Amino acid sequence: MQTQYIQQLFVRYKILALLLAVAVIWIFFNKFTDGAFMTPRNLSNLLRQMAITGMLACGMVFVIISGEIDLSVGSLLGLLGGVAAVLTVNMGWHTWPAIAAVMALGMAIGLFNGFLVTRLRIPSFIVGLGGMLAFRGVLQGITHSKTIAPVSDDLVYLGQGYVPATLSTLLGVLIVVAVAVLTVLRRRRRKQLAIQLLPAWADALKVVAIAGVIAGFLVTLNGYGGVPLPVIILIGLLAVFTYLGSQTVIGRHIYAVGGNLEATRLSGVNVTRVKLVVFGLMGLMCAFAGLINTARLAAGSPSAGTNGELDAIAACFIGGASMRGGSGTVHGALIGALVMASLDNGMSMMDVDSYWQLIVKGTILVLAVWVDVLSGTQRD
Question: Are residues 269 and 179 in the same domain?
Answer without folding.
Answer: no
